[in-house]
Design a protein that fits this description.
The protein has 204 residues and is α/β, with parallel strands linked by helices. Helices cover 32% and strands 20% of the residues. The protein has a seven-stranded mixed sheet with strand order 3-2-1-4-5-7-6.
Length: 204
């Protein structure tokens, strides 16, 4: 799975202004353009293909941060009770949704997640797109807004929009500062961290 992701990331990196990284301020227009034109943004979702993790979403109210093309939100809606798909750019694939999936547009830093009564918050290839300053707001919000969290995070420089490039241990420490039970799950690809407080997700 992750070999394909590496190829997709390479394609996604081409032709993008590196100054976005220095400014630390990609806009929703920037991401909307990727959703409209990037093949990778329309085909890839890092949360798919992990049935051991998906079991923890059954009959739960799930919030996907940075839902992108919505492939995971739609998929998990088959077993979750309700799914809330958050993003500040809307992929055209989110125009038609299952009845228990709701797209929530806007800046996640400003959203009141407590209004959604979420059981679990998840993300894939999302948190590294925030600045460290924004993460001081976002990570505590995620921890406080749901009993369980599961996040797949890139720990490498993609050449343009990964604004926080840190080790798996750094990410783990950030979550542990705000909640109990957080640990790193085994990942089959270097430089990708899975941080969660779910118990017994994968069999090592």
């Amino acid at each position: 799975m992750f070999k394909r992701l590496k190829l997709l990331l390479r394609k996604r990196s081409s032709g993008v202004d590196p100054s976005l990284r220095e400014s630390g301020a990609p806009t929703n227009k920037y991401y909307q353009n990727l959703h409209d034109k990037s093949k990778a943004y329309n085909q890839n979702n890092w949360l798919l293909g992990m049935p051991e993790f998906e079991m923890h979403c059954e009959q739960k109210r799930v919030g996907e941060i940075g839902c992108g093309n919505g492939m995971f939100s739609k998929h998990i809606s088959q077993t979750a009770s309700d799914v809330f798909a958050f993003d500040w750019a809307k992929n055209k694939q989110m125009d038609v949704l299952p009845p228990n999936v709701s797209f929530v547009g806007g800046n996640i830093l400003e959203a009141d997640l407590s209004n959604f009564s979420l059981d679990i918050i998840v993300s894939g290839d999302v948190l590294e797109h925030f600045t460290k300053k924004d993460l001081t707001i976002l990570i505590p919000k995620l921890v406080q807004s749901a009993e369980k969290n599961f996040h797949v995070i890139a720990c490498f420089d993609d050449g343009h929009s990964h604004l926080t490039v840190e080790s798996a241990d750094w990410w783990l420490n950030e979550f542990q500062r705000h909640g109990e039970g957080y640990h790193l799950e085994k990942c089959d690809r270097p430089n990708v961290a899975i941080v969660t407080n779910l118990e017994s997700v994968f069999v090592n």
